[in-house]
Amino acid sequence: ASWFSGSGSDVFYDTNEVLELGRDDADRSPSMHPHGFAGTAAGLGTAHQDKESSPSGDNDSNSDSDADDDEYYDSTKNSAAAQANRMRRDLIRDPDFIEALAQNNLRSPRTAPDAAPASQAATGVVDYEASPQATIDHVRQQVGKYEPRTTLPAESSKANVGLVSILRKNVGKDLSSIAMPLVMNEPINALQALCEELAYNPLLQKADALDDSLDRLMYVAAFAISSLSIKKHRAERKPFNPLLGETYELVESQSGFRFVAEKVSHHPAVMACYADAPGFRLWQDSSGKSKFWGKSIELIQTSNVHIELPAHGDHFTYCKPSALIRGLLSGDRTVDFTGEMVIVNRTTGDRCAVVFKEAGMFSASNDAVECRLFRGRDSRTVERVLRGSWSGQLSYEQSPTRAEPIWTAVALPPDAASFYNFGYFTMRLNELVPATQDDLPSTDTRFRPDQRAYEEGRIDDAERLKTELEEAQRARKRDRDAAGTEWAPLWFVEADDPDSPDGRAWSYKGGYWDARAHHAFPQTVDLWHS
After folding, report:
1. Greatest CA separation found in the chain?
2. 183 — phi, psi (to 5°)?
3. Among 246, 249, 322, 197, which Cα is nearest to 524's?
4. What's the Cα-to-Cα distance from 414 to each of 148, 393, 422, 431, 434, rounded to whole Å?
5. pLDDT tens per residue across span 392-427
6. Entry pTM
7. In what helix (H) or strand (E) does residue 262 lie, and over which residues does it extend?
8. Element (H or E) spanning 18, and its range?
9. What is the spatial distance between Cα 188 and Cα 90, in angstroms, rounded to a whole number?
10. For residue 362, how far is the Cα from the chain centroid?
């Protein structure tokens, strides 16, 4: 096997030469992040940066000397080090190369995320993949004083559809394969819905700054609950189903994070996403089942959310709770979350058991939730209790008479009912901003024509375009089957995950942010034209 140079010259690198480079990097930099942004394919675990290795580059434990660093990064020198450096730059965005690293238990040749390379200031070369702040700052400069929209181009479409008549023949079945009328949709898709869950991401950035592990767990729990609050007033509709290979990104310059997602599987439908900021990293894949039980729809999650806080090396995991959509017969639909959600810090052993109060036959749940925090592995002593509602507020009960609010949901816009009950954050998810649209890949959801038509109130156009896009997708599937090829996602890879319920999970394999910064997205299928 060999890899083709991405630098524009006709250079091929031998497999053994490439793998030797990876081993050499591992030997030279033992404190490198064990899987990092590009190396998550190598396995999932705690992202621990050596605290003795300063992000500013003052500590030289990652190189033999300042002179070695100069030679390592100066690609103008005619030396073996320069050749190796060129190879790194060519290969770091190559998915096959990253997969080879994973298979050979090697590390990606880049420094820890959030830690800028020591040579960056000297060379002016920015590693966008390892520096979320660089991407965020770049977008801030682009958008300037541009204000995101606070409404949609058109008001909500009328959903005058008898949902029960559609579902009555499918009691007990998975609903993912059932075609729903377009007017049952809302004008965002499932990739954007994953991004919407990060609306309260500052909770994670605050958690990373806290010293006590239970304080950090408390704010991670608040974040996990906050991601459910967006569902409170949105039981009437569902997101668009992305096409296979469709992507979505958001660089949120206000709260300071970046997000990328991709639909990685069509049957079963799986969306994978990755988000990072100076204070956290998060990844998950959205997989699950939905079943119709006559009077309600049950949505069952089967995948984990992973969160890392780099300042302390914490690695949290949890599985989102199942949801019940009730009131299908009465037409007054509501959402309830059921059961227990357990958030575990895999590094310290701390855990939080989140219990959702279900509605009874004659009583509402009031969205009540209780969180019990335990310190250390196997502890049965409740150290702290949080109480509140998953749709409104969560407070830390410091005593029977004193409670400290740690999260409060932002009120919906006054006219939200006319715009699918979207909050301000959701309103801007599908906005195509002129200053940044040229940085997007052609696969980004914002370019999807049927969803754009639907958002603008052109329902007939949206119906026609949706039919055309889905038929083109089926035609591409037939072509792959005839050629005996499998679909390969661009930005995510499935790997073993001991923390996942089924032992497997999708994780980010790197390259997207570098490709974005250099307008070097790979050529792929044209999703929007038949």
Report:
1. 79
2. -70, -5
3. 246
4. 17, 19, 11, 20, 27
5. 999 999 988 899 999 999 999 999 999 999 999 999
6. 0.75
7. strand 257-265
8. helix 15-28
9. 36
10. 38
